[in-house]
Amino acid sequence: MKPTIDLKLILALTGVALIWGTTYLGIRVAVSSIPAWYVTAIRQTIASLIILVILMKQKELKWIGWSNLKRQILLSVLMVVIANGMTTVAEKTIPSGLTSLINATNPLLVFLGCVFLGIQKASLKGFIGVFIGFLGIVFIFRDGISDLLEPGYRNGILSLVIAVTGWTIGTIYSKKHSGKPQYIFLNLFYQFVFSAIVQLGLALVFSGKANVSEWKAESIFAAVYLAIFGSVLGYFCYHYALKKVSASEVSILTYFNTVIAIFLGWLILNEHVDLDLIVATVLIIAGVFITNYKKKAEIKAA
User: Fewer CB near the last or first residue (10 Å), C or N of the chain?
Assistant: First the structure.
């Protein structure tokens, strides 16, 4: 019997690859005239309101309890406020393609963290993947160490390091303390509301009162795009795909995200793409693939 094609799954997987691949371009455009923390506050506020409407329409809006609230606040701090927020800050001075490539190393750090904490078994394959992936980082900076003397570039790289660290810790925490996710949109609602409040506070502290008259239309449109597509639709597609296929299979889409981000940065923003960046991209993607790759027998056993 011929297997039926799940069009909804195909659309969800395509959505994750395309939407999250375009968010780096969206962030770069948004921060061109809007302060970074205001971009994140706008993004999470709009996303919160959209999810609120969805939850109310489906009559699923409810209190999640103090223990779950604490978990969602911690995840919000690590993965939204720190990871998403500092990535947005970084893109003020760092090209979108380079940002996506450095963020792509996250699975390598998650592997190392999980091995260190005993959540995952160490494997030669995994360490080979990590080595190859970090060779890619060497290619990024081998001729550009002197660029770190430039304050804007250095601060951007430091912001990315903080962002990747936050996402890594948040991912490991999720693996260690969370089972199969329940009430996905309800949890996201609490995460986004909390992060919107915190990021608005950070915007007022670091950027002062919002001078909306200086915000360009394309930047405002990009911030709205990030909220609707990057935060709401992207997460919906991602979690729908997780219901149908394994997390390791969905994670393959991150490879496409990086390629799409670099291509769009080059095509639309005229970002420089040289041989070193291409080699770094191949090495990092190969490293992540080797680290995450599992045979069908291993997936069934897991």
Answer: N
- Is the pTM value of this prediction over 0.85? yes
Give the separation between CA 290 and CA 136, rounded to whole angstroms: 14
Query: What residue segments make up the domains of the chain, in order of their start?
Result: 7-294
* E-only strand ranges, 122-247: none
d(CA 18, CA 233): 11
Which pair of structure tokens corresponds to residue 225?
A: 């795009």
CB distance 89 to 158 below 8 Å: no
Outline where 142-233 has alpha helix (H): 151-177, 184-207, 217-225
pLDDT 10s digits, 45-78: 999 999 999 999 999 999 999 999 999 999 999 9
228 token code pair: 């609707």
Q: For residue 299, which amino acid is it?
A: I
In 3D space, the residue among 278, 288, 298 whose CA is nearest the CA of residue 251 turns out to be 288
Q: Which residues of the chain have pLDDT under 70?
A: 1-5, 143-147, 177-182, 239, 242-243, 245-252, 254, 293-302
Between the two ends of the chain, the Cα-to-Cα distance in Å is: 28
- Half-sphere exposure for 182 (CA within 13 Å, toward CB): 4
The position carrying tokens 């795909």 is 241
Question: In sequence order, which residues have a C-beta less than 8 Å from that of residue 4 and are 6 or more positions away?
Answer: none
